[in-house]
Description:
single chain, 799 residues, alpha+beta, Aldehyde Oxidoreductase, domain 4, Aldehyde Oxidoreductase, domain 3, 28% helix
Amino acid sequence: xxxxxxxxxLRPKMVGTRVKRTEDPRLLAGMGQYVDDISPAGTLHVALxxxxxxHARILNIDVGEAFSVPGVxxxxxxxxxxxxxxxxxxxxxxxxxxxxxxxxxxxxxxRYVGEPVVAVVAESRYAAEDALEHINIQYDPLPFAxxxxxxxxxxxxxxxxEAGTNTIxxxxxxxxxxxAAFEEAAVIVKGRFRMTRKTAVPxxxxxxxxxxxxxxxxxxxxxxxxxxxIIRDVLSxxxxxxxxxxxxxxxxxxxxxxxxxxxxxxxxxxxxLARKLKRPVKFxxxxxxxxxxxxxxxxxxxxxxxxxxxxxxxxxxxxxxIGDVGAYSIYPWTAALETVQVVSFLPGPYRMEHYxxxxxxxxxxxxxxxxxxxxxxxxxxxxxxxLVEMAARELNMDPVEFRRRNLVRAExxxxxxxxxxxxxxxxxxxxxxxxxxxxxxxxxxxxRDAARSEGRWVGIGLASxxxxxxxxxxxxxxxxxxxxxxxxxxxxxxxxxGAITASFGISSHGQGLETTLAQVIVDELGCKLEDxxxxxxxxxxxxxxxxxxASRSAVLGGGAATLAARVVKGKVLRAAAFLxxxxxxxxxxxxxxxxxxxxxxxxxxxxxxxxxxxxxxxIPREQREDLTASxxxxxxxxxxxxxxxxxxxxxxxxxxxxxxxxxxVAEDCGKIINPMIVDGQVHGAVAQGIGAxxxxxxxxxxxxxxxxxxxxxxxxxxxxxxxxxxxxxIEADLPNNVGGFRGMGEGGTIGAPAxxxxxxxxxxxxxxxxxxxxxxxxxxxxxxxxxxxxxxQPVKTxx
Length: 799
């Protein structure tokens, strides 16, 4: 190093750099460790006999010759274990809410096809599966209402009699005089919008391994969960084990998309069986089980109306939502998770003075509704953006100009929405302009009109939305729910060798958090990237951990890492100042080298650490500080993230297949930590949003049976389905936020369905039909056109 070369000049900032993911070498080389890779000696395996009835009383369970299968160790129903475990109850302070108890196996009756009833434990999964064939369960079928519009009726059969109703949650959000606004409106548009049931389909199925330590009387659960801290906390109560004797670890996790963020019966089951049998117990679901028993999402029926002035200004919005919450209120998120967020976020990024949103969450005999990438906002954005496009069409106004007039402007932040959400600051208008500029919107319109003149069915659709990411302690998805969603702790330690360990309560399941959080620490602490080990996914790492969900890990984890790194850096510099006989204000650290601005003196981080920890006497006892810090960050209100999506589609008039010709995303996720990872998140989320818009659907027939039983029935996007995606990054300044980070992992699933629905509606507008249900499959387009024809209005149909 020369006299004039300060360490701060040796390397540019890491935040904002396209750093290759540090976790990829092990994952790409097949060296990752997932739950199913962990097989302690003596591991037993569980197979489950699941309900084939949607709603029935369990009369008798006959195991027949199941014990004759070689390798079978034990067979259990709930009566064998209910004295050894308490149910998990997702509590809430919401008035009128009923929290269904969640047990590891069906208790008394079954409430959906796929609910676990009997557990067979064997030396191998093969033996356990073979034994299931011998078990016979006698049911007394009970009446049920499979659809939410029927289940919500007063005389509907009850799934949980003790609740006295199927409607276990009701809420209303309102501001202003909605009725007066509608009386004054020049234009009123309305629709009955629905996004059908989806499920996450991660690459790795749900997997659990519980190990009981008889010497320590403690339990370790390895789980493919995104929320090991939440799971530890609830199981501590269910199993009556203190946190010191219960550890929950999420090793490498092959995707979650929200579905692995809740407590599942199988997690409870392997824990109680491991303690009971004093042997490791493993359960790994197969794809059929994942499709039929993993939490599902989006099944919201939204009846909404929008009031608009003749100048195209939004003045009123009202909505009634019936959310199909499935058979149980999922732990810990409650039955309010999806439905409440639909009406909370329905006004979106628009100015709106008058609003009324009502929800009812209704029990039906289906798997529980739980977190899914976007949580409520894909449905609310779909409904609102369809209304916006419908209103623009009624006024014969360009949809871009219509949005421009109504999106919250920069000078209006912070803006409180009609539902009470506060948008601190985000690039609402800039995202709209950025998407249009990137796509060359005017030229796209010309291309569309030229194609239409040739008889082709081509359409353009936009969707603008806003979301809260990194939610702070002021807001939760359901008041009083049994978790802390609003803070995150980072513990950073430098050991005697100068190596740095950073521990977090988050849990990565593919987001690249080991890389991005290390980048933040490098910039704040001044160390080398290769000297940092980021630890996560383990409930034992920090005092309070919850996990990764709601686009929180970069915001809260990055904020906590920033605070902790600053404290540790201060300790390092104070120690170095004494050792170097320099003023602490004259020192800085970069690439692990502490240097003085006033001299050529330098020390390495390793030398300082050695002096602190192993060379007793070099620093006086009263000045010696351990090079550690634990800091907690709370963004309080959360941070606003916004985006505009733009899609151009073409529909084949012979097959009704939809092809996406152009796709652009302009997104504001604040200061970007790693542009490569952000681009990957956008691509993946848009692909998932395309699936929701065009392909994915869990269907339950009138008999309560799930007919999407494999990936031949439940269609997910493949490489040929996903177009090239143009991305515009807008890094709007974020006040009062440590690091300036916003979450962005969910945006594609929020914006893509609405943008594609609007594009398909635009392509079909000349035929007089409008998209109100997603996915908009070729079959649905055919039905829309057929219904129009049957109503006596001629449409163009295939030759």
